[in-house]
Structures are given as structure tokens and as C-alpha cells.
Design brief:
Family: Belongs to the SecE/SEC61-gamma family.
Order of helices and strands: HH
Oligomer: single chain
Number of helices: 2
Protein name: Protein translocase subunit SecE
Distance between the termini: 59 Å
Structural class: mainly alpha
Strand content: under 5%
Function: Essential subunit of the Sec protein translocation channel SecYEG. Clamps together the 2 halves of SecY. May contact the channel plug during translocation.
Number of strands: 0
Helix content: over 70%
Shape: elongated
Radius of gyration: 22 Å
Subcellular location: Cell membrane; Endomembrane system
Largest sheet: none
Membrane topology: Single-pass membrane protein
């Protein structure tokens, strides 16, 4: 069982490669856009709930 795990780990490390700068920047942009979208949705929900439920 341990030998099988080590064999699979070795295979993954051989197939994996370090991303180049363009690929890294694309992933960073998509991640940033996703975080911003989730934040805006949360802000809109907060605004709507503050108007609907008076404090």
C-alpha cells in the first residue's frame, strides 16, 4: 500500500510542471475576479437585507 502511494506520487511529480508567467497571471486574474464577484454579491445581499429588515 505504501509502495503504491509512493509510485503514484512519483508519477504525479513527473507529470506536473511549473506554470509559466502567462499561466500564473491568468490564474491570478481569474481568482481575483472571482473574489471581487463574491464580495459584490455579499455586499448587495447586505444592502438588500438592511433595507428589508429595519434595525
Amino acid at each position: 500500500m505504501l509502495q503504491e502511494f509512493l509510485h503514484q506520487t512519483k508519477r504525479i511529480l513527473q507529470v506536473a510542471k511549473k506554470p509559466d508567467m502567462d499561466e500564473y497571471l491568468n490564474v491570478a486574474k481569474v481568482t481575483g475576479i472571482g473574489i471581487i464577484i463574491i464580495g459584490v454579491i455579499g455586499f448587495i445581499i447586505t444592502l438588500i437585507s438592511s433595507f428589508l429588515v429595519p434595525t
